[in-house]
Amino acid sequence: MVVMQKHIRLMIGFLALLLFTSLALLPEATLAMLGVFLAVGLNLILFSVLRPFRNFTITRTVDKHQLIPPAEIKTTLNMRYNGQFPTNASVEFECKSLDLDVNTGTIVFKPGQDYVLTQTLAVLRRGVHTISNTKVTIKDWLLLSGKTLTFNDAEEILVLPHIYPFATPPEGTGSGVLGVVSSTKRGRSSEVWGIREYQPGDDYKVIAWKAMAKSPDHKPMTKIMAGEVGAAITVILDIGKDGALPNGDDTTLDIGADIAASLCYNFVQRGTRTGLAFFDNKMRTLIRPSKGESHIDSVLRHLALVQPSLDKFLITNLSKTYLQLSPAEFGNSFVLILGRLDDRLVDSYIPKIKTARDLVVVIVHNETNLERAEQIQEAAQKAGVTCLLASAETVRATIGSLERWAYATTQRA
Amino acid sequence: MLLNGTVVASTIDFLSSIGFVAAIGFIVVYVFLRRGGVLARIKSPTVQVSLESFLLVAPIIYPMFIVITTNNPTDFIGVFMAYLIFGAIGSLYEIVFGAGVGALGKVTYFFIAYMLALMIYAGSLVGQATGAGFSVLLAFDQIAGVAIYFGYEGVPLDLPLAELVRLSTIISIPAITFSALAAQVRLSEVKDNPAGEARMVSTLRPTVAFLTFGSALLLLPALLISRLIVEPAVYLVTIVPPFLVAGAIIVVLVFTERKQ
User: Around Cβ A198, how many Cβ atoms within 10 Å?
Assistant: First the structure.
């Protein structure tokens, strides 16, 4: 259906009225009609001739393009109109995923004047958020017709997963978790990078007497020294369909991505070679263990972008696939972050995976499947597998437990 | 015009007629029910339409009956005049206070108010002269216009003070234009942003004034053409000059928009 433009409809209406008054032989009324008709026509002609839409300069800036939530981003819109007469225009852009909708409404722009519009918004969810092109709709003085200019300035904002730092801060590059340390230092040095409970076989020289005295039950503690050698670690994240389940204000996959990001970041910061795998019914993405800033950047980008797949996570497939990951390259320690809990095979397959590799399982649950998560945890612990529960409320505590697990599994040289 | 002596005298003549009182009463009831939202609250559309139609048409039923049975048109003319007066007052109200009325609406109401006022004045004048109170036929003749060329034997009156009325109307044309344009800005703004505060009218006042001045200048060619044809074809004065000027504006507009 052809929709007639507003100004054409109005002009036709005026012509019809003009015809009525003319035929009624009412000269005064005819002149009044003609006067308004001419004013409207003049307005449209001047708009076409003066072309105020050619005199707009719009610059939009976003202060951050990559950030870790919770954070705020500030968008600044600088507008300048260089025409000869005032003009009416509205400026708009949006980012649906961030609930950003900027629309100035129709405002009058005066020649040579600068207009600045600043908008600050809170960013809470990971992902890629696209801010649309800026659209400027310039209207004639009676707001009847208009022309829309689209500026090609769409931008993407990468919001990384939330990263929870380990309680023990890294004391420099090469600090060791899971025994992996700086590539430049091998063998034990005098630098202390972590403290854990005493384990049989630990040298008495590394007993941390002060930490032991400070601990409430005076359990023996030992220091983890720089230079102790260990293997890499690989984090496997379940990106199956169940990742879309709501979990607090986020989804199960969001929580899983936060945990994976926190582990990878903290491990890499301490010099541990860390890999990342996305798995549903097969291996979707595999980032080989490495370290360094570019590696952690790649890992975090993947975790920012990952979305729940259309397939369910199958632990039976994982139990076969992960065996293809060589211990030399991917290490002997795996962290499995699991979101699918309705699969009854999980209980029996976790111990099977444990037999081949050192495994810790993190079950991401919400309020509705807490009971099932506890069942899996119980079954895993019976089989001697460390199994932690995590939800939107307990994710920080889970990271603390994983930190302790990481120190506890450090292999002595 | 509604307040001049002739009109007031005619109105007073009809004040006592049953038709006039009944019509005023029904119209007041209708306006009261409509403003109070009573009619809108009726759920059945059929009932709503029937009730509205009854309230609007009922005043004419009784005088029609009287005309048919007694040939006495007094009540009929009373009702007719009540409608005219209410129509004129309503149109004037919309011109001045009508929220949500754009340029087209403003000039349409102006046109209606002007025609009704003309009819009331002419009808009352002749009615007073003949002692009938109001002449429906002569009232209609004032707006019959082109019907006269097709054989209708209308008698447009040269009303007293007509020159004064004509002059004041011509002077008020820029004011009508200005108010219509301002109303259009307000209406467009409200339509574009219903939730926002309408503030463009005050900001764009100089621009609207500029357009009003421009349109007044563009009326000059119509005036010149009128003077040229007034001698050979006076009956075309209200048709040819305005359409020539309006046509020229349309041609320029189409040309500039295509170029754009």
Answer: 15
pLDDT of residue A338: 94
Q: Do B71 and B166 fall within a single domain?
A: no
CA distance A58 to A134: 8
Query: What's the number of domains chain A is made of?
Result: 3
Q: Name A207's bridge partners.
A: A222
Q: Is the pLDDT of residue A231 over 90?
A: no
Does residue A280 have a pLDDT over 90? yes
Task: Flag whether pLDDT at A413 surpasses 90.
Answer: no
Tens digit of pLDDT for each residue in B72-111?
777 778 888 888 888 888 888 888 887 778 888 888 888 8
Q: Look at chain B and report how many structural domains it folds into.
A: 2
B212 in contact with chain A, both atoms CB, cutoff 8 A:
yes
Asked if the model's pLDDT at residue A147 lies above 50, the reply is: yes
Number of residues written out for chain A: 413
Strands A358-364 and A386-390, sheet pairing: parallel
For the beta carbon of residue A381, count every other beta carbon within 10 angstroms.
13
Yes or no: say if A380 and A388 are a contact pair by the CB < 8 Å rule.
no
Pairing of strands A107-109, A333-338: unpaired
Q: What is the pTM of this model?
A: 0.67
Q: Which two tokens stand for residue B60?
A: 């004419």
- Considering the domain architecture, whether residues B103 and B198 belong to the same structural domain is answered as no
pLDDT digits (tens, 9 = 90+) for A323-350: 888 888 888 889 999 999 999 899 889 8
Asked if residue A216 is part of any domain, the answer here is no
Round to whole Å and give the CA distance between A394 and A255. 10
Is the pLDDT at A205 greater than 50? The verdict is yes
Task: Classify residue A191 by its DSSP letter.
Answer: -
Task: Tell me the C-alpha to C-alpha distance, in Å, between residue A368 and each of A7, A315, A371, A385, A394.
Answer: 58, 21, 8, 24, 15
pLDDT value for A177: 44
Confidence check: pLDDT of A229 > 50: no
Asked whether residue A210 is domain-assigned, the answer is no
From CA A56, how far away is CA A86, in angstroms rounded?
A: 12
| Secondary structure (DSSP) of A218-284 | ---EEEEETT-----EEEEEE-SGGGGSEETTEEHHHHHHHHHHHHHHHHHHTT--EEEEEESSSEE
**What 3-state DSSP class applies to A388?**
strand
A8 shares contact with chain B (CB less than 8 Å) = no
> Which residues constitute the domain of residue B247?
162-259
Residue A120 distance to chain B (closest CA, Å)? 21
The full 3-state SS of B194-255, as one line of letters, equals: CCCCCCHHHHCHHHHHHHHHHHHHHHHHHHHHHHHHCCCCHHHCCCHHHHHHHHHHHHHHHH
Predicted pLDDT of residue A60: 92
A59: three-class secondary structure by DSSP: strand
Whether ipTM exceeds 0.90: no
Q: Read off the amino acid at residue A128.
A: V
**Partner residue facing B260 (CB), from A6, A31, A48:** A48
* Residue A62 belongs to a domain: yes
At A182, the pLDDT band (50, 70, 90 cuts) reads very low
How large is the average pLDDT for residues B192-212?
Answer: 77
**What are the backbone dihedrals phi and psi of residue B2, each rounded to the nearest 5 degrees, phi first?**
-70, -20
Are the beta carbons of B156 and B141 closer than 8 angstroms? yes
Q: How far is A282 from chain B (nearest CA, A)?
A: 51
Interface of B with A in 115-174 (CB under 8 A): 115, 118, 143-146, 148, 156, 165-166, 169-170, 172-174
